[in-house]
What does this fold into?
Amino acid sequence: IMDMWRASDPLVSIEAFREGAKTTLSEEFLLIEALFANFRYLLIFGETYTKSCQRIEAMKYELTTNMKIYTLFGKQKGTTWSENKIVLPNGVCIEAHGWEEEIRGYKYLQYRPDRAYLDDIENKTLVKDSESVQAQWSKLHTELIPAMDTELGKVRMTGTPLADDCMMTRARNSEN
It folds into this structure.
């Protein structure tokens, strides 16, 4: 999973069974990348706003309680430390949103998002039929990807397939 996160490919999907540690490993990798300022602006999307904010909460916990992080990088509570957004002292911004939100115009200072993490964004309603899945697939390709930094943008999606036709199976079968 860590190798897939580190890949230079702009689009990567990571599929695994429930309890496969996809989210935990993704959070760890993103924190390491953030601490080393390997990106400037990360968007985290969960199925809902609440679920995406849980990713921020887990990251804040690690940033404030992990003594290895403190020893190596110092205090990490930066200028912004809210429910859905944190800015680290090195200037890296991590922001959480629900997949149900409209994806347009994201910008932090002068930066467009250069990382996006989609964590289990689908639910039974979104995979009920091919038209619903197509709407989500289109949202990925017509809203999120165009909103990313054109040179540095990377999108990572983790999940467990919920149907024969869903975002994860489409990503698995995609040439991109």
Summary: The first strand starts at residue 11 and ends at 15. The CA atoms of residues 65 and 75 lie 10 Å apart. Helices lie at 2-6, 22-35, 49-65, 67-73, 130-147, 167-173. Strands lie at 11-15, 41-46, 80-81, 85-87, 93-98, 115-119, 154-159.
